[in-house]
Amino acid sequence: MPDFSAGTGADPGCRLCACLGIRYPIIEGGLAYVGNGSLAAAISEAGGFGQVGSAGRSPEQFAEEIEVAASRTARPFGVNIPISEHRDNTPYVEVVLQNRHRLAAVSLSAGNPRPLIPVFREAGLRVMVLTSTVRQALKAAEAGADVIICEGFEAGGHNGPAELTTLALVPQVVRALREAGRDVPVVAAGGIATGEQMAAALVLGADGVQVGTLFVATEECQAHPAYKELLLRAGDEATVVIERSQGRVTRVLRNAFTERILELEKRQPSIEELLPYILGHNNRVAAIEGRVEEGYMNAGQSTGLIREIRPAGDVVRTLASEAAAALNRAREWAVRLQGRAEEAKTD
Q1: Which of 8, 168, 279, 332 has the fewest CB atoms in 10 Å of its CB?
Q2: Residues 133-150: what's their mean pLDDT?
Q3: Where does 83-207 show beta strands of DSSP type E?
Q4: For residue range 276-312, what is the model confidence (pLDDT) as tens digits?
Q5: 39 and 50 in contact (C-beta within 8 Å)?
Q6: What is the rounded CA–CA span in Å between residue 340 and residue 184?
Q7: Do 198 and 323 form a contact (C-beta atoms < 8 A)?
Q8: Which whole number is the average pLDDT over 245-262?
Q9: Checking phi first, is residue 194 left (phi over 0); if not, alpha (psi -120 to 50) or beta?
């Protein structure tokens, strides 16, 4: 792997930071269609780990966005490949290998990562694998993953059919990996949009967090302003899950288009009937072109916590400072609870 650690301020005491050469244990999610190079660069420049998304892009467009990110930061950044989203991953893998000198890591999601892990590791890249169950996490670690990302189904976009929550999943994965003797950094993902939630993830045993929807609501993200505005107006019940009729879980913003999908799914449609509604084109129509009632937009349950459009760098720094403050406040609880425990021993 290229040595990106020099001059980045990477914290050697944090396994994730040391692994990726970053200052803060904050990773950008893959963000289909809207995970552009400018956004990835801004996140990395601020000390997090930005990622260029390949979903919704041709191999040529994917390469262009990597070029954009590399031209705007010398700090570590990576890419995301959602395996099942591409009919043929070969050209995307080739783009990654051609740009391996610019990249620090590849994250693999939405499919079986086992065949690709050695390909990227042999190219000198770190490999992060998105998982939604303990079994998947153990298999990914056994296959050689450098980082395990545990994503609860609070997350926007495609999620695991087990529908485990972040709060339940992360500590189980941490314990399972420890008991299996797998010394791999664990990243919590799904519904995270504040430093307090980041602090909670760290207390659960995670080494860092992956954040998606919050980074859509940034100045550098290429998402259409109408999409971003909807995120600002969204509340706690603003998202719905579509595709359950096909055994899939995709969390999106509630709108007239997704309501039509949910009505159709009540009849248990065939995949042929549902496909015209769930094609990626309908994601582009809303997320990129701004016709927000004519398609769907991925969003996690953290939407109710997003209040403003900010520079991505500010988001990274705010998450870190809020997490630090939350962990400091937690010390008061530690003292209080320890005192009660000591009192109970003497009763």
Answers
A1: 332
A2: 97
A3: 105-109, 126-131, 147-151, 157-159, 186-189
A4: 999 999 999 999 999 999 999 999 999 999 999 999 9
A5: yes
A6: 35
A7: yes
A8: 96
A9: beta
Place of tokens 């990996």: 177
- The 3-state secondary structure of 136-159 reads HHHHHHHCCCCEEEEECCCCCEEE
How far is 337 from 98, CA to CA, in rounded Å? 54
CB atoms within 10 A of CB 8: 17
- Report the CATH superfamily, name and number, of domain 15-223+303-334: Aldolase class I (3.20.20.70)
Give the mean model confidence (pLDDT) for residues 265-278. Answer: 96
The position carrying tokens 């962990």 is 327
- Token pair, residue 188, equals 């919590």
Q: What burial class does residue 264 get, using C-beta atoms within 10 Å of its C-beta: 0-12 exposed, 13-18 middle, 19+ buried?
A: middle
Q: Helices then strands (H, E): number in the chain? A: 14, 11
Where in the chain are the domains?
15-223+303-334
pLDDT digits (tens, 9 = 90+) for 98-124: 999 999 999 999 999 999 999 999 999
Edge-first strand order for the sheet with 50-53 is 26-28, 208-211, 186-189, 147-151, 126-131, 105-109, 77-82, 50-53
